[in-house]
Structures are given as C-alpha cells and as structure tokens.
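Hi support team,

I submitted a single chain yesterday and got back a structure, but I'm not sure I'm reading the token output correctly. Could someone confirm the output below corresponds to the sequence I sent? I've pasted both exactly as they appear in my results page.

Thanks,
R.
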Amino acid sequence: LIDDNFSASFSLGLLDTEFDQFINEFGEDLSGRDQSQAPSYTWQLGLSYERDGWNAGLSADGRDAFYFSDRHDVKSTRYTLLNASLGYRQDSWEISLWGRNLGDTDYTIRGFGSFGNDPRKGYVTEPYVQFGEPAVYGITLTLSYQ
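Hi R., thanks for writing in. Yes, this is the structure output for that exact sequence:
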C-alpha cells in the first residue's frame, strides 16, 4: 500500500534446476542441462488505484525461456506481458474495461520437436509450438444481489 488510493505489488520467482545425470530415450546425455518446464525466473509487477468508486490497474508479468521437454531442444520464448483495467463501482454493480497482452506479444506456451505435424511438408519432423493468448480486450458488468 503506497497510500489510501494507490497500491503496488511485486513478486519474483527464481528457479535453478538442472539434470545431474540423465540420458533421454534417444540416448542423448542431458546432464547439466536445465530441466523442462522450468524458467529460471518469473515476475509480476502491479499498480492499482481506487477512489470514489473508480479503480484502475496496470500490471506486467514476465517469464524466462525454458525447454519444453527432455525429448528435444525446443525452447519457449522469453516474454513480458502488459495488462490494464479501468472500472467504476457503485452499490451493487460494477463495470470495467480491461485488456490483456496489450502489446500483442507473440509468446510460446507449449512446444513439440519430435514428430511431424504439417502435411504440406510431408510430416517432416520439425519444431511445432503453440502460442499464448494474443491481445484481448473486454468489458465486464457485474451485478450483485443480496
């Protein structure tokens, strides 16, 4: 809490993990490599304002790149996402305008590297990734009955 109207939050996650001794199913020695699904850091920073029924929020969150699997070397992308909201609350109702991934950042959340997925290329084995949510905007109206 910065004052009666402003507040801030910050979180940081640090992870240091690697294989001590590991040979994958293809006979590849991954000893010393970072483990899968283990970004070395994640973070979130948020600011919010609230006064006389009005509220606003701005947040950013980020994640380091990480390997998707121990079956291949396909990695995620490192990314930072920006989100915001603006709203008004009175008695039993609230309306808010919001947006996520305001920079429309392309970021990968899942990846495969050991099978063919594209018939146009004769199903050759190549990396295939799934992307996270693009820029999304919305309006939310909330009514509370008591």
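A quick pointer for reading it: The chain has a mean pLDDT of 93. Let us know if anything else looks off.

Best,
Support desk
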